[in-house]
C-alpha cells in the first residue's frame, strides 16, 4: 500500500524514491505536508494549522533525517553520581557516557552528497566574487540587532567546531578573476577525516566542542578549559574588575571558547559570567552548606538553562517573527498549556501539552545525540556581520528611547581579536551593549558577505592569530563541499522539500537569476547550499531561508529533548529549588541585562526584545489569543 502510494503522480517525481521507504502512516503524513508545500502556503495558515504542519514535518524529519555517524562505544554509568554537567560533556545520555562529549562525530541529517561535481566546480573564489562579495551593506531592518548577531556566534561556540587536519590545502583564484580577489591564493587546514565504521559514510569529522547546550562557551570543553575559567572559590568564574573578561599575558581573553573572538562576542561571555556568579551568590545565601564545587555545578546547570531558554523563547522568536513560530517556540519550552499551567501543575501530559523541557525521559528518536554537518552548514551566517561597528554616546542627554548619538564608526576588523579587546576595555560594557542594541545587523542575502572577512586573520583553537589569512567567503563554499554536505537541490529533496527546477523557482530577482546563470549555467543541481540559502525568497518575518528553518525545526527541539538536564533531571533535586526558580523567572535577555545593569533598558530600550533594534516600536498588544490568530 505504502509502495503504491509513493508512486502516485501526486508526489514530485524526485521525491518518490525517498517516500517509498516510509511506513504507510508516514506516507500519509507526507501527503499532507506535500500538498501544503505545493500550494506554498504553510506560513500563511492560521496559527493552529501552521503548528500542525510544523508538527508533522518535525515528526518526519525525526524519522528520516537523523543519521548516527561512528560506533557506539560508551559505557553504562550511574546517572545519580553525575547529576551535573561534566567538563567534557560526558555522562549526559542515561545509557552511554560518551554520547555528546567533546571529540565525538558530527552526525548527519541526510547521507553525504551524491554529487558528480568536483571540489572546485565552480571555483569557490568565483562563487565568492560573483555571488557573495558585499557591494553595499544590506541590513536586517529593525528586526535583528548586533546583540542578536553576536548571540548566535556565542551559541555556535557553545555547540560546534570541526577538528582540523595537520595538512593544509591551498586555494588559488583562477587568472580571469584573480585581480578581483582580496587574496589571490590562500592556505588553510583541511577538515580532519576520521574513519567511522558506518556503512553509508566511511569517514566523518569530529566536533571539538561539546554539542550539548551546556554553556561550554564560558565553561570550556574539557577539564583544562574548565580549570582556566574557575576561581575555585564559592563556585565563581574569573572576571576582571571592570566586569569584562580577564586576559592572559598575550592579551587573549580567558574564557571557555576563545577562537575568532571579537568585542561583541566576548561581551556576551562576560555578561554570562556575571550571570553565573550572581547565581553562585544566590545559592550560597540560600544553601550555606554548599562548597565551591557544589555551587559551581548548580550555577552551571542554571546558567546553561537560562541560555537555552533565552535562545528558544526570545532569540528564535525574533529571528522568525511570526505568530506561528512564537507559539511553536513557547510550546517547545512550556507546552501548549502554557507557562501558568506548567508553573502550577508541573509537567503533565507529554511534550505537546507541557513542552520538551521537563520530560520524564530524554528522547533521541533512536539516534544518539550529536549536532550535524548540515546544521553547521545552515548556520553559516557571516553576512550578519556589518562592515563597521557604530559606537554610541551613552552619556548624551538624549531623552528616553532616543537613539544615542554616534561617537565613531569603527571598522569591524578593529573590533576583532586583541585590538577589539583593547577597544572594549576602553569603551566598557555598558556603552558596548547599548551600541550593539542600536545597530541593525546584516541581512542573510547574496552580495552581503563582509568584505573584511575576505582577508581575515583566523585564530587557532587557542585564540592565537594564524600566519595565513583566509578568504572566508570562498573557504565556506569549499568547506561544505569538502565535508560532503549536499548541494542545495539535493539538500531540499532530502528534507522532503520540492526541489527547484529553474532559477525562477528560487527567486524573483532578475539580477540574481542572471548572476546564478553566469556562475552555474542552467544547472540548478550544481547550486551550492550556501548560495541557495542566501538567494531563496524569504518567508515574511523570517530572517533566514525556509530550507535552513526545516533543519532548525528538527535540531532546536533535539538540543532540548535529548539532554538529561533539560528533561528527566530538570527538577529541583538536580537544580535546587532556588536554582529552578531562577530559570523559571528568567524569560528573556532583557531580564538578564536588567539584573546586571539596572536602568539600562528602561532608558535606552523601547522595543520588546533586546534582540531587535532598541529604538524600534514595541510589539503591539493584540487581544486575540495566540492560538486563535488568523493567517498573517
Ligand atoms: C567577528 C566575528 C566572526 C569571526 C571572526 C568568525 C570567523 C570564523 C572562522 C575563521 C571560522 C572557521 C572557518 C573554517 O576554518 O572553516 C568560522 C566558522 C564558523 N562560523 Fe564564524 N566568525 C564570526 C562570527 C560568526 C557568526 C556571527 C556566525 C553566525 C552564525 C558564525 C558562524 C560560523 C559557523 C557556523 C562556522 C563553522 C564552524 C565549523 O566549521 O564547525 N560566525 N568563523
TrEMBL record:
The lineage of its organism: Eukaryota, Viridiplantae, Streptophyta, Embryophyta, Tracheophyta. Keywords: Dioxygenase, Fatty acid biosynthesis, Fatty acid metabolism, Heme, Iron, Lipid biosynthesis, Lipid metabolism, Metal-binding, Oxidoreductase, Oxylipin biosynthesis, Peroxidase. Heme b binds at residue 382. It comes from Salix purpurea. GO terms for molecular function: heme binding; metal ion binding; oxidoreductase activity, acting on single donors with incorporation of molecular oxygen, incorporation of two atoms of oxygen; peroxidase activity. It comes from the Eukaryota. Pfam families: An_peroxidase. Its cofactor is heme b. CDD domains: PIOX_like. This is PROSTAGLANDIN G/H SYNTHASE. One of its GO terms (biological process) is fatty acid biosynthetic process.
Amino acid at each position: 500500500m505504502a509502495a503504491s502510494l509513493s508512486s502516485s503522480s501526486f508526489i514530485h517525481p524526485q521525491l518518490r524514491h525517498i517516500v517509498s521507504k516510509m511506513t504507510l502512516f508516514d506516507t500519509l503524513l507526507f501527503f499532507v505536508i506535500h500538498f501544503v508545500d505545493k500550494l506554498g502556503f504553510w506560513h500563511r495558515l492560521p496559527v493552529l494549522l501552521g503548528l500542525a504542519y510544523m508538527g508533522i514535518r518535525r515528526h518526519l524529519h525525526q524519522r528520516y533525517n537523523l543519521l548516527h555517524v561512528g560506533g557506539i562505544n560508551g559505557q553504562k554509568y550511574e546517572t545519580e553520581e553525575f547529576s551535573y554537567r561534566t567538563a567534557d560533556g560526558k555522562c549526559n545520555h542515561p545509557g552511554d557516557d560518551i554520547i555528546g562529549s567533546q571529540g565525538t562525530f558530527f552526525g548527519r541529517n541526510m547521507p553525504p552528497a551524491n554529487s558528480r561535481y568536483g571540489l572546485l566546480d565552480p571555483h569557490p573564489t568565483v562563487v565568492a566574487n560573483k555571488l557573495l562579495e558585499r557591494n553595499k551593506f544590506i541590513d536586517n531592518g529593525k528586526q535583528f540587532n548586533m546583540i542578536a548577531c553576536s548571540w548566535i556566534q556565542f551559541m555556535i561556540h557553545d555547540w560546534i567546531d570541526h577538528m582540523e587536519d595537520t595538512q593544509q590545502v591551498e586555494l588559488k583564484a583562477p587568472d580571469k578573476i584573480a585581480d578581483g580577489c582580496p587574496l589571490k591564493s590562500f592556505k588553510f587546514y583541511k577538515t580532519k577525516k576520521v574513519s567511522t565504521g558506518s556503512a553509508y559514510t566511511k569517514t566523518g569529522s569530529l566536533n571539538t566542542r561539546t554539542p550539548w547546550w551546556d554553556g561550554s562557551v564560558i565553561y570550556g570543553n574539557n577539564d583544562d578549559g574548565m580549570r582556566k575559567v574557575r576561581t575555585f572559590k564559592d563556585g565563581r568564574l574569573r572576571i576582571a574588575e571592570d566586569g569584562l573578561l580577564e586576559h592572559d599575558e598575550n592579551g587573549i581573553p580567558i574564557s571557555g571558547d576563545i577562537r575568532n573572538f571579537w568585542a561583541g562576542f566576548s561581551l556576551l561571555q562576560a555578561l554570562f559570567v556575571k550571570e553565573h556568579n550572581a547565581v553562585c551568590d544566590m545559592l550560597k545565601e540560600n544553601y550555606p552548606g554548599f562548597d565551591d564545587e557544589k555551587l559551581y555545578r548548580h550555577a552551571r546547570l542554571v546558567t546553561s538553562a537560562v541560555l537555552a531558554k533565552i535562545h528558544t523563547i526570545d532569540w528564535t522568536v525574533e529571528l522568525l517573527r511570526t505568530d506561528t513560530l512564537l507559539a511553536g517556540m513557547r510550546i517547545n519550552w512550556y507546552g501548549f498549556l502554557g507557562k501558568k499551567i506548567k508553573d502550577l501543575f508541573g509537567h503533565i501530559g507529554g511534550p505537546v501539552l507541557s513542552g520538551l523541557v521537563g520530560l520524564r525521559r530524554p528522547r533521541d528518536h533512536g539516534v544518539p545525540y550529536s549536532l550535524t554537518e548540515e546544521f553547521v552548514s545552515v548556520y553559516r551566517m557571516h553576512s550578519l556581520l556589518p562592515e563597521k561597528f557604530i559606537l554610541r554616546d551613552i552619556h548624551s542627554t538624549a531623552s528616553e528611547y532616543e537613539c544615542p548619538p554616534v561617537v565613531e564608526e569603527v571598522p569591524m576588523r578593529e573590533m576583532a581579536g586583541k585590538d577589539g579587546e583593547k577597544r572594549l576595555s576602553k569603551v566598557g560594557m555598558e556603552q558596548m551593549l547599548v551600541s550593539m542594541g542600536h545597530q541593525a545587523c546584516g541581512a542573510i542575502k547574496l552580495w552581503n558577505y563582509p568584505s573584511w572577512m575576505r582577508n581575515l586573520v583566523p585564530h587557532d583553537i587557542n585564540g592565537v592569530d594564524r600566519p595565513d589569512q583566509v578568504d572566508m567567503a570562498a573557504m565556506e563554499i569549499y568547506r561544505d563541499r569538502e565535508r560532503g554536505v549536499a548541494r542545495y537541490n539535493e539538500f531540499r529533496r532530502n528534507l522532503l522539500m520540492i526541489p527547484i527546477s529553474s532559477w525562477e523557482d528560487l527567486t524573483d530577482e532578475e539580477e540574481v537569476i542572471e548572476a546564478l546563470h553566469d556562475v552555474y549555467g542552467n544547472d540548478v543541481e550544481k547550486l551550492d547550499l550556501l548560495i541557495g540559502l542566501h538567494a531563496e525568497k524569504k518567508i515574511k518575518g523570517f530572517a533566514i531561508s525556509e530550507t535552513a528553518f526545516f533543519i532548525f525545526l528538527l535540531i532546536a527541539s533535539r538540543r532540548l529533548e535529548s539532554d538529561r538536564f533539560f528533561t528527566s533531571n530538570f527538577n529541583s533535586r538536580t537544580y535546587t529549588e532556588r536554582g529552578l526558580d531562577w530559570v523559571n523567572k528568567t524569560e528573556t535577555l532583557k531580564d538578564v541585562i536588567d539584573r546586571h545593569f539596572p536602568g539600562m533598558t528602561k532608558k535606552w530600550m523601547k522595543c520588546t526584545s533586546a534582540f531587535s533594534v532598541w529604538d524600534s516600536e514595541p510589539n503591539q498588544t493584540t487581544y486575540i489569543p495566540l492560538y486563535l490568530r488568523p493567517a498573517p
